[in-house]
Amino acid sequence: MRAVAVVYALLGLFALCVPLLGIYPVFMMQVLCFAMFACAYNLLLGFGRMLSFGHAAFFGAAAYATGWLVTAHAWGPGAAILAGVAVAALLGLVVGALAIRRQGIYFAMITLALAQLVYFVCLEAPFTGGENGLQGVPRGRLLGLLPLKSDLVLYYLVLAVFVAVFLFIRRVVHSPFGQVLKAIRDNEPRAISLGYEINRYKLLAFVLSATLAGLAGSLKALVFGFVTLSDVQQSTSGEVVLMTLLGGTGTFFGPVVGAAVVTTLQQYLSDLVGGWVIAIIGAIFVGCVLSFRRGIVGELAALRLRRPRRPRP
Amino acid sequence: MTSVFGIPVAVILGQLMLGLVNGSFYAMLSLGLAVIFGLMGVVNFAHGAFYTLGAFAALLGLQLFGINYWVALIVAPLAVGVLGMLIERLLLRRVYGLDPLYGLLLTFGLALVCEGSLNQVFGATGQSYPVPPALEGGLNLGFMFLPLYRAWVIAVSIVVCFSTWYVIERTRLGATLRAAKENAPLLQSFGVNVPLLVAGTFGGGVALAALAGVLASPIVLVNSHMGSSLVVVVFAVVVIGGMGSILGAIVSGLVLGLVEGLTKVLYPEASDIVVFVIMALVLILRPAGLFGRD
Amino acid sequence: MKLRMLTLVTAAALAAAAGGRALAADEVVIGDIDDMSGVYADVMGAAGVEVVKWAVADFGGSVLGRKITVLSADHQNKPDIGASKFREWADQNGLNMLIGGSNTGVNIAMAKVAAVKHVPTFHIGPGGASLSNEDCTAYTVHYAYDTVALANGTATAIVNAGGKTWFYLTADYAFGTQLQAAASKVVEAHGGRNIGAVRVPLGAADFSSFLLQAQASGAQVLGLSNAGTDFSNSLKAANEFGITRTMKPAALLAFITDINSLGLATAHGLYLTTAWYWDLNPETRAFGKRFFARFNREPTMDQAGAYSATLSYLKAVKAVGSTDPDKVMAQLKKTPINDMFTTGGYIRADGAMIHDMYVMQVKTPQESKYPWDYYKVVKKMAGAEAFGPITGLCPLAPAPK
């Protein structure tokens, strides 16, 4: 336990010192947003065993909502983010209510279909800018005080939100609600026989996951200053699955690692190998599924368990 | 000229005809998917990639070996089928015991590898494949001019689809295949080489996709993105038809092609998503699909 | 265990970050963000990056005693990737100049970044005329062609040849709609009529249903307001369905690579407008030969434009004696451009590079005497005629009273 605390402390220190280390803050913010997205997704996939194929819908819808409110209606960033999160929650409620009636591949296909509908709305709606997306989204001032235009200030804000989300997810998983969710995941018939209303639990998990994904999306809109159709596209949904799988489903830190690795690959690998990035990402996907199912963090945790414990003096 | 809702009948008929052509492709592709899912329980997200490979096989066959269209119709599906069997043997087999979602993810990754590689090697602009001389020209149907080649596609598709259905549902081979799904060890104990059968089923399913690819090459430019744009729609079609149902896949494919065609006349922008709307409705109201059994 | 992981992750991140940064101060950094793998990859693409490097080498490899570096990235036709890469290069790599490849939507996003980061940007690939109108910035140069010039060239030629009534097949994004609008204006100005249009999603697989609608309209001309694979696919389908027997296709944007992939048998007779063609004169042929030796195909106008734009920028930097963006932009806007790409070209206040445009007609297979002999010149349009007057939509260039 203590070793884990040390690791977290070191990571925290690293994260705080990022600007001093000369790492590009916008890149780190991108990693953090996707890490949040992946953690939110993991809540559903890792702890709830529900494979959603359309999670980008929540991420992107919140991003569009925030982006639009800030550009067209000059809302402040704080209020716009809250609005974006609300949109994602609402969407999550609707999609979840429809999707959880079925399981497995059918559940996945419903989320896919509904995500395509969201994509369609984002494409056709007059205020989203269609194929061009929303451009020039200003960052504004948080609560009228904190100027977010500075990459540094925004970075610390995003970091703070990320830590809050991470801790919140840990809290949820360790809570009674989380325990029931795990019970449902491990043995649904038994959970039913114990008298739990599993649909309610599943729906709540879905809405939570969607809401947090929306938070990631809203932040992303402000970080980059634009929202495009990629944010609601099938490929983004696929990416978050990869991040979670690669990092380790069912672990806490896995999705963060997965997000960091995939984002870094996309940024820097494409400089080296150009278009082969897609094929390489696909190969990693295949490799993960074949022999690396527990993901990076999962494998490391398993390795640790296998090492014989040092006897206490 | 007579009109329905203010749209000339000729236009509606023309779109329905085109819808039937699209539907033929949907039917063939969803048939392959349904065969693979129905007989193996695998959700093959790489189906679009095999379709693309079929088209490229025909194209390269022509460019490198001078293989003409008619030979390609046989050779390309065979080649892709063999590749499919290899993939099944080497990769898919390793995820059978696990949660079926892993099979899905595996094939999803394979599709990315295939498409990414084709994109890098051949570029994205796409290459032209000529319509075979025997099928050039067209038929004047009065309400539209239908290229002979498209009529051919409809004919081939219907023949192939219904033959496959017949083989699976009505012949001994089909019965054996269905038995392998229900109780493989028992079948094995009867002396049937089940692993070979399973590999062959996968190979057959993807060979159907490759055949669709060859049929499509004279219609669209052969490019690496051909499959990915289709595969999501085809999945929706299979779900609507009922994931294990062969007949369901064929009928849904054809019908949805027609529905799409109609949508293009009435509300063109929605033609891309009408299939998904229907799928969502079907899943909510009748989750086993229109022809599904469970 | 986790400590080891942490160290690895940190090390990787640091290495990646460190590797990404170039020595900013003593280099001149030119960037090229383009579609390297998608539907427009052959228009400029990886070959375009090579061409930029040739320009740098031909200029001497350095300017003002500073080495010139060329960076490139694939925007994958996504505005967010293009804009983020641009921003990152500006923040981390000391980017001095950017070349924008195909896709109007991506370039509009990048123009916004250019305005904030003060980096001169040469938009070579995109067609949307809004780049020198509503979306203009102080750092924009719209170099090779735009939707207004394309319409003025091709649409005029077709209307004058008898194509009075038009129906459009339009790619449903910024470029397609702007091109349709420009063409419609020209058609009406010359006494023609716009009967209707149908919007087609970018990258659609099958155009047959949209083409049937076009045919049902009874128009004389099929206006193809799209590019790349969309253009080739739609023309192919139009031929197949016998539509080209009753309607004349208008290739509002076509590159020589499209004509090559379609083949002269399908494409002959098409009118198209281009800024540059390899077979125009000895200078263009020399560049074409150099390109052909390396890539086994002739260059498009975008690739020639990339070469010229790089040289124009470097010449301006040398003349001004610094890479200060405002000074360089001022110099660019007052220097005429005379090189292999064009003669007598100049950059207008709104950023549009005004130069001659050529209306071409694609040759029949019989007329073509040697490989890539595809075009015959129908008309040469002077820059002012091609690009039209200043509209006043760009704040930098108010319309003359």
Short description:
The complex is a heterotrimer of chains A (313), B (294) and C (401). With 294 residues, chain B is mainly α. Chain B is built from eleven helices and four strands; from the N terminus they run ββααααββααααααα.
List keywords for this structure.
A: 313 residues, mainly alpha, two-stranded antiparallel sheet, 1% strand, B: mainly alpha, 11 helices, 71% helix, 3% strand, globular
Structure overview:
- The complex is a heterotrimer of chains A (313), B (294) and C (401).
- Chain A is mostly helical and 313 residues long.
- Chain A has a domain at 23-233.
- Chain A is 73% helix and 1% strand.
- Chain A has helices spanning 2-17, 25-45, 56-72, 77-99, 104-124, 151-174, 176-186, 188-193, 198-224, 234-247, 254-273, 276-291, 295-306; strands at residues 141-142, 146-147.
- Chain A has a two-stranded antiparallel ribbon with strand order 1-2.
- In chain A, β1 and β2 (146-147) form a beta hairpin.
- In chain A, α2 (25-45) runs parallel beside α6 (151-174), α2 crosses α11 and α10 (234-247) packs parallel to α13 (295-306).
- The longest helix of chain A has 27 residues, at 198-224.
- Chain A is globular and about 55 Å long.
- The two termini of chain A are 17 Å apart.
- By secondary structure, chain B is mainly alpha-helical.
- Chain B has one domain (3-285): ABC transporter involved in vitamin B12 uptake, BtuC, CATH 1.10.3470.
- Chain B is built from eleven helices and four strands, in the order ββααααββααααααα.
- Chain B has helices at 9-40, 47-65, 69-90, 100-122, 148-170, 172-182, 184-189, 194-216, 226-241, 246-266, 274-285; strands spanning 3-4, 7-8, 138-140, 145-147.
- Chain B has a two-stranded antiparallel ribbon. Chain B has a two-stranded antiparallel sheet with strand order 3-4.
- Chain B is globular and about 65 Å long.
- The N and C termini of chain B lie far apart (48 Å).
- Chain C is of the alpha/beta class.
- Chain C folds into two domains: 24-145 and 282-354, Rossmann fold; 149-274 and 358-385, Rossmann fold.
- Chain C has helices spanning 2-20, 45-59, 79-92, 104-117, 147-160, 174-189, 208-217, 228-240, 243-246, 256-262, 264-267, 282-295, 301-320, 325-332, 383-387, and strands at 27-34, 62-63, 66-74, 95-100, 121-123, 140-142, 165-171, 193-200, 221-225, 248-251, 271-274, 346-347, 353-354, 357-362, 375-381.
- A six-stranded mixed β-sheet of chain C has the order 2-3-1-4-5-6, sandwiched between helices. A four-stranded parallel β-sheet of chain C has the order 8-7-9-10, with helices on both faces. A three-stranded antiparallel β-sheet of chain C has the order 11-14-15.
- In chain C, α6 links the parallel β7 (165-171) and β8.
- In chain C, α2 (45-59) runs parallel beside α13, α3 runs parallel beside α4 (104-117) and α8 (228-240) runs parallel beside α10 (256-262).
- Chain C starts with a helix and ends in a 14-residue tail after the last helix.
- Chains in contact: A-B, A-C, B-C.
- The B-C interface holds B 8, 10-11, 14-15, 18-19, 21-22, 119-120, 123-128, 131, 138, 144-147, 149-150, 219-221, 223, 225-226, 229-230, 261, 264-265, 268-269, 271-272 and C 37-39, 41-42, 198-199, 201, 203, 205-206, 208-210, 212-213, 215-216, 228-229, 232-233, 236-237, 240-243, 257-258, 261-263.
